[in-house]
Amino acid sequence: MSTTVAAKPLPSPLKVGLSRTGLEVKQFFREREQLIFTFFFPIIFLAIFSAVFGDTDFGNGVNAATYFTPGMIASGIFLTSFQSLAITIALERDEDLLKRLRGTPMSPQSYFIGKIGLVLVTSILQFGLLLAIAGLLLGVDIPTDAGKWLNFVWIFVLGTASGSVLGIAFSVIPKSGKAASAVVTPVVLLLQFMSGVYFVYSSLPAWMRTVAEIFPLKWLAQGMRSVFLPGISEQDEPGGSWQLGTGAIVLSLWLVVGLVVAQRVFRWTRRDAG
Fold it and tell me: How many Cβ atoms from other residues are within 10 Å of residue 151's Cβ?
């Protein structure tokens, strides 16, 4: 008499993705160079801008450190999500790591979950460290209003998610892993300069602000200004308001577009592998 053993069902894509998140986080903390760049790059830039513009009057009792903190947070999120993933995935594809993962039960969706989970964990830690140093050493006023922190949560989540899926989608653009940094970094720098990260946004040329409004970093930076700057600073924005509703729509649209494109163009192997 023969007996048949029921095949054990494969784990769900979500379970595999969460497991991948844990592995991604462990690997991240083993890379000291990447760890230092991710956590200290925004802090160093904030300290530099605070020193350079220390005597500048930003109005409404806002000092240089307070004004540039929202931009550094937005920039940090974009660097950790879009830039980091676009470069890292291109390198992993070039090194055939993705080709090996293809032979496991991992689906593209699980791989995406792992990468987005990594970005969420590192972005939260990055933000916490930046805010602690900004508040303790640079004189930044930390918001105490619960409504502002609720706004921060949805802006942070939407910005992180949209930046992550766009980074995954953009990772197919570089022809090789070695070329990834040269292709991705100029795009990020251009968006940073146009989106009010390194300058007072209202002082930028009108045509530049119009172009910046198409992309998510501008709305991420503006949303963060609504959290960390006093309410009266809203009138200094080009539109006379924080435009949080418009920002939510733009970030959500980029999230959907990025997810659809990432699903369609994602490759486990290099182009020359067929």
Answer: 20
Q: Angle 199-191-182 (CA atoms, 0-180°, nearest 5)?
A: 125
pLDDT tops 60 at residue 147: yes
- Classify residue 59 as left (phi > 0), alpha (psi -120 to 50) or beta: left
Quote the CA–CA distance of 263 and 274 in Å, as a whole number. 18
Give the three-class secondary structure for 268: coil
Per the prediction, the chain carries an average pLDDT of 89
Q: 55-63, long-range: CB within 8 Å, 24+ apart, which pairs?
A: 58/200, 59/233, 59/236, 60/229, 60/230, 60/232, 60/233, 60/236, 61/230, 62/229, 62/230, 62/233, 63/139, 63/140
Cβ neighbours for 140, distance < 8 A, ≥ 6 positions apart? 63, 65, 66, 69, 131, 134, 228
For 187, residues 6+ apart whose C-beta sits below 8 A from its C-beta are: 170
Token pair 């930076």: residue = 221
pTM above 0.85, yes or no: yes
Nearest-angstrom CA–CA distance, 80 and 201: 22
